[in-house]
Amino acid sequence: MTNETSISLEDLVKDHSMLWRGSKKNISSDQFLKTGYAELDQFLPTGGWPSDSLTEIIVDHWGNGELQVLLPLLMKISQNAFPIVFIAPPHIPYAPALESAGILLDKLIIIDDEINTNDLWWVAEKTLRHPECGAVLIWPKNQNPQHIRRLQLAASTARNPGFLFRCGAPTQSPAPLRLKLSRSMDDITIRILKSRFGWQQNRSISLHLP
User: DSSP of 109-120, one letter per residue?
Assistant: First the structure.
């Protein structure tokens, strides 16, 4: 016999964020950030961008809308006086476009793509762990599951959102939420490749973003 109180499987899944159920949401409002697009909030299994997790965004080529879908979130973060860190973007972000989207440029920190691979992962982890960080956007030069797991732990520990960008065909990744973006004229199609937060397979959404 044991005096330990028994815990139901339902309570175990509910109380521990590291456990998840593939077909059912269990997301509280403080675990997501509104995307700025109502239809995208309804589409994403978290009800918005995960606020304490790593989101991987995959495109066929750079400039396929990967920054555009994040602009409302980045605007809100910067106007709330939190810094946004860009690590090794493939192109220098166009400042007038960011400013016209309402992003405060003095809240942007950009680390150029000349940073070496080891330093990139180290800087990404340290910034994600920083309590005053608003968001971290990362364009890694290679795919490293071990480093991605460390980034996810940093994001969940500090409760900071991280966004990992990849160009090309999707490969395996431990990132909790993985999205594939495709662009056709002014429409961006978003498909969920993987989610630990519960979702229906083969779903996609098309956003009109001129």
Answer: EEE-TTS-HHHH
Residue 31 CA from chain centroid, whole number: 12
Structure tokens at 210: 């001129």
**Average pLDDT score over residue span 43-57:** 93
Give the closest residue to 138 by CA, choosing from 146, 149, 148, 130: 148
Task: Give the Cα separation of 176 and 199 in Å (integer).
Answer: 12
Residues 6+ apart with CB under 8 A from 83: 107, 108, 109, 132, 133, 134
Identity at 89, one-letter amino acid code:
P
Which residue do the tokens 């405060």 mark? 104
Predicted confidence at residue 24, as pLDDT, reads 41
- Show the domains of the chain with their CATH numbers: 29-208 (3.40.50.300)
DSSP result, 122-147: HHHHHHHH-TT--EEEE--SS--HHH
pLDDT in tens, 119-175: 999 999 999 999 999 999 999 988 889 999 999 999 999 999 999 999 988 788 899
